[in-house]
Write a sequence for this structure.
């Protein structure tokens, strides 16, 4: 009689462990998708490359994954974002999955901008960074479909930042007859 109850107990415990493992497997992809933050950047029609202007219109990004949307003003959607390095290290900024709101072709570029002149600390300019095509470039061109002339569907730029250093990310993108464009962006 005791042998049956021990076997039944072991069977129940193993069944519960299997059920728990299955729940964890199914819930994990859902939580990964939930970690992507959706944000809308403030569209600028006439960007000025100064730290004071970028600071006034930029939304702050932290390390993580984002789904960014930019509304178009005129023929393009342009926007600034701000990132401050929490530690001194190489950071990787990745853009992918560019989409126009109407589903048509879209393209654009982004810059990583830093202060360029110690005599005019308000002046910012695009900085050369290591990119995924093995080159050092300042403009990282991207598109919704693979094309020629340096337009990739996934682009990244890497740059070393000191702790507390602030950079500005400038995005410019266009979708044919679309009201907005959106893309995935990550900072690691």
């Amino acid at each position: 009689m005791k042998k049956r109850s021990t076997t039944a107990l072991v069977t129940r415990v193993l069944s519960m462990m299997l059920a728990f493992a299955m729940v964890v497997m199914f819930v994990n992809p859902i939580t990964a998708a939930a970690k992507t933050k959706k944000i809308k950047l403030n569209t600028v029609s006439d960007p000025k490359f100064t730290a004071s202007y970028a600071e006034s219109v930029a939304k702050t990004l932290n390390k993580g994954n984002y789904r960014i949307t930019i509304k178009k003003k005129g023929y393009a959607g342009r926007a600034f974002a701000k990132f401050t390095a929490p530690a001194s290290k190489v950071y990787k900024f990745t853009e992918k999955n560019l989409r126009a709101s109407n589903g048509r072709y879209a393209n654009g570029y982004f810059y990583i901008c830093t202060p360029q002149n110690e005599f005019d600390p308000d002046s910012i300019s695009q900085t050369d960074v290591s990119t995924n095509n093995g080159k050092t470039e300042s403009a990282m061109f991207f598109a919704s479909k693979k094309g020629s002339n340096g337009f990739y569907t996934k682009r990244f730029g890497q740059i070393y930042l000191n702790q507390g250093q602030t950079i500005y990310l400038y995005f410019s993108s266009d979708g044919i007859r679309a009201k907005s464009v959106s893309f995935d962006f990550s900072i690691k």
User: Anything to note?
Assistant: Residues 2-34 form the longest helix (33 residues). Residues 1-34 form one domain. The chain has two domains: 1-34, 37-187. Helices lie at 2-34, 51-57.
